[in-house]
Design goal:
Largest sheet: 6 strands, mixed
Strand order of the largest sheet: 8-13-12-11-9-10
CATH topology of the largest domain: Rossmann fold
Length: 514
């Protein structure tokens, strides 16, 4: 057990400090504290020694230097069972410090507030606090470190019961302190790199800081555990980190992953739009002049697959739009907001998770986990110019076909490759997703569309290696095709379109999604 006789306190966040200090005072634990912390404790009527009194050195440089002194560092780092360390402590009249209570300057709050003045930002970078936490964590065999007010009550209970502190728990809290300092430094490095306007998008080292937001109901499957972490370094302001749950059961891993897919797509549209996602692919997507019409078209796009899906709206959900899904079992509904009438409808659906999510720009990066590392890339965001489309067939698409192709092209970016999207009147009528061959993706999409394929357009996320897709699309009633182009056999597909009377345009951009 680690005896607690002397505690050093240096906290920016004073939450729970009075209760903790009174506990120390009642147990006769000597308290050292830095300026603001010592004043707080004295104002509450308790005895405390200011660090400058212990070290014999005043705080200098406007408080930048307080605890960086051998008396403090030695008191924390001294090994109690090492003769040479004990000799040094006695020789220099240094009292061992058994407990460090420290939390850091609120650099993150300044970041969240959007402060960009470098002179203000750097003053919120804690130096002494980081040193205290690291020193105490390093010497956790002899010193306990409290890096968060959340640990105060547990610490006091442990000390009350055992009149000392277990080394096992001290080690666990040391790990927590190191995680805190690592996260703090990662955020500083990330934010300063933004202020420095670094041109290199992929630096040689990339510290990540992930802050746990939720323990999830379960992972991808019920036997797997899961948690949701907010990214505080790469994409601090992503919409998934800003969502607010207004009702329903706890979220699962798949709920969040599918919500990302649904809301990521629906925010792409300026006009009212609704997306239904199942297993991370949109099975229903529609846009219209009114949200309720878009909702009905999205549900009807694939009503069988919509069962148990995720529904996303890009505008405030009204009563009429909510009514579309009143009698359908869905797992999650998300939107920028909901009217009171819409909330009444959705709240009546037992267990339905209701999420309010703001419309924000897409994140800059896409990060994927592989065994032993990560793959980092720019997000698939393209400033797409419809005027840059190239008609490659003798027949040109009509205005209606072009509008439908542009609509389908947006949807194709959010469907697993190989992808075929069939759309008509800004409604997705058939989806072929995640197939190993493009012709199989088309056949699935045609089967989903059935007779609705007649007069529809087709969007493909990548080029056609063979003209068979064109031939089968024409047989199914497709009238126009948009695809990236770029195959050495492009001309074969163009010739087939000309022979069968289809129009085809090249986008020049591929949108694989794995």
């Amino acid at each position: 057990m680690i005896p607690i006789r002397t505690a050093l306190l240096s906290v920016s966040d004073k939450t729970g400090l009075e209760k903790l200090a009174r506990f120390f005072s009642q147990r006769g634990i000597t308290m050292y504290a830095t300026g603001g912390t010592s004043r707080f404790i004295r104002e509450k009527g308790m005895e405390v020694q200011e660090v400058s009194e212990v070290t014999g050195s005043p705080e200098i440089l406007g408080g930048r230097v307080k605890t960086l002194h051998p008396v403090i560092a030695g008191g924390i780092l001294g090994r109690r069972d090492l003769d040479s360390d004990r000799h040094d402590l006695e020789k220099h009249n240094i009292r061992p410090i058994d407990l460090v209570v420290c939390n850091l300057y609120p650099f993150e709050k300044m970041v969240d507030q959007g402060e960009t003045t470098l002179s203000k930002v750097v003053e919120e970078i804690d130096i002494g606090g980081i040193t205290l936490l690291r020193a105490a964590a390093k010497n956790s065999r002899y010193v306990v470190v409290l890096s968060s007010p959340e640990n105060y009550d547990e610490f006091m209970r442990e000390l009350e019961v055992n009149d000392g502190f277990s080394e096992d728990m001290s080690l666990r809290w040391a790990v927590e302190a190191f995680r805190r300092t690592a996260a703090y430094d990662a955020q500083i490095a990330s934010y300063l790199s933004e202020l420095a306007k670094e041109e290199e998008p992929f630096p040689s080292t990339l510290p990540l800081c992930l802050n746990r937001m939720n323990i999830l109901r379960y992972g991808e499957n019920p036997h797997q555990k899961g948690a949701f972490y907010r990214d505080l370094t790469l994409d601090r302001r992503g919409f998934m980190a800003s969502m607010e749950q207004l009702g329903g059961k706890e979220l699962s891993f798949n709920n969040l992953y599918d919500t990302q897919a649904a809301f990521g797509l629906v925010r792409e549209f300026e006009k009212p739009a609704v997306v239904v996602v199942k297993h991370n692919n949109p099975c229903g997507t529609a846009s219209d002049d009114s949200l309720s019409k878009a909702a009905l078209k999205a549900r009807e796009g694939d009503p069988v697959s919509a069962f148990g899906g995720i529904v996303a709206f890009n505008q405030t959900v009204d009563k009429e739009s909510a009514q579309v899904f009143k009698d359908l079992f869905i797992e999650v509904v998300c939107a920028p907001d909901f009217t009171r009438e819409a909330m009444d409808i959705f709240s009546a659906k037992k267990g339905l998770r209701i999420l309010r999510i703001p419309i924000v720009p897409p994140s800059r990066y896409d990060l994927k986990k592989v065994d032993g590392g990560f793959l980092l890339q720019d997000n698939d965001v393209v400033d797409f110019d419809p005027d840059a489309l190239k008609t490659v067939t003798s027949k040109s698409p009509s205005d209606g076909e072009m509008k439908d192709m542009l609509f389908a092209w947006v949807v194709a970016r959010y469907v697993k490759s190989n992808t075929i999207i069939l759309a008509k009147k800004k409604q997705v009528v058939g989806v072929g997703a995640g197939q190993m061959s493009r012709i199989d993706a088309l056949r699935i999409a045609l089967a989903k569309a059935d007779d609705r394929a007649h007069g529809a357009v087709l969007a493909s996320d990548a080029f056609f290696p063979f003209p068979d897709v064109v031939e089968e699309a024409a047989a199914g009633g497709i009238t126009s095709i948009i695809q990236p182009g770029g195959s050495i056999k492009d001309q074969d597909s163009i010739d087939m379109c000309n022979r069968l009377g289809l129009s085809m345009v090249f986008s020049g951009v591929r949108h694989f999604r794995h």
